[in-house]
Structures are given as structure tokens and as C-alpha cells.
């Protein structure tokens, strides 16, 4: 994602899943989980600086939390697609 392009909407993301093979859905879920883990780790490392008043770190944590929420929602969309296929 670039600084000027908004993330793909949940509706468009879900629609894009329809044409993907099951292996790609599982791969995307794994990729999202890995990204979430890295963002959460980053937030833990930034937290002491944010607690000391570093506004840049506070902003980074808030942005990471928004991204994590979006990724968790996408995992739910992936799960719904897989379950919708009877898996």
C-alpha cells in the first residue's frame, strides 16, 4: 500500500477471493497471520518509547493497530470463503 492509495475495501477483497484456488486462500491467511505477528512485535518494541511521550511511536502503534484490525477482518473473510466452499 502506498501513502496515497487506500487499502482495498473488504467487499472488493472478498470478491477477489472467489476466483482463487484453495491453496492460495490458505497461503494468504498464513501471510496475513505472519504480518500480524510482526506488527504486534513492533508495537511491543515501540511501547516503551510511546509511554515516555514519543509521539511518532504513539502514531506508529496506532497505525499498526488499525492495520492489524484490517488484516484480522481479512482472515475472517478468507475463512468465510473457505467454509463457503464446504471446507
Structure description:
The chain has helices spanning 10-17, 22-51, 55-84. With 87 residues, it is an all-alpha fold. The protein has one domain. Helix 2 (22-51) packs antiparallel against helix 3.
Task: Please supply descriptive tags for the structure shown above.
single chain, mainly alpha, 3 helices, elongated
- Unreliably modeled segments: none
Structural domain tally: 1
Question: Helix and strand succession?
Answer: HHH
- Proportion of residues in β-strands: under 5%
Helical run tally: 3
Which of globular, elongated, flat, extended, rod-shaped describes the shape? elongated
Number of E-type strands: 0
Question: In whole angstroms, how far apart are the ends?
Answer: 31 Å
- Please tell me the overall pLDDT: 95
Could you estimate the helical fraction of the residues in percent?
over 70%
Biggest sheet: strands, sense, closure? Answer: none
Rg estimate, integer Å: 16 Å
The secondary-structure class comes to: mainly alpha
List the helices and strands and how they pair.
Elements (H helix, E strand, L loop, with lengths): L9 H8 L4 H30 L3 H30 L3
Helix pairs in contact: 1-3, 2-3
TL;DR of this structure?
This protein is mostly helical and 87 residues long. It has helices spanning 10-17, 22-51, 55-84.
Amino acid at each position: 500500500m502506498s501513502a496515497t492509495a487506500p487499502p482495498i475495501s473488504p467487499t472488493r477483497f472478498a470478491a477477489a477471493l472467489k476466483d482463487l484456488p484453495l491453496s492460495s486462500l490458505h497461503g494468504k491467511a498464513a501471510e496475513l497471520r505472519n504480518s500480524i505477528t510482526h506488527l504486534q512485535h513492533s508495537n511491543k518494541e515501540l511501547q516503551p518509547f510511546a509511554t515516555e511521550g514519543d509521539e511518532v511511536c504513539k502514531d506508529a502503534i496506532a497505525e499498526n493497530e488499525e492495520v492489524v484490525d484490517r488484516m484480522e477482518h481479512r482472515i475472517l473473510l478468507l475463512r468465510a470463503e473457505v467454509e463457503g466452499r464446504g471446507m
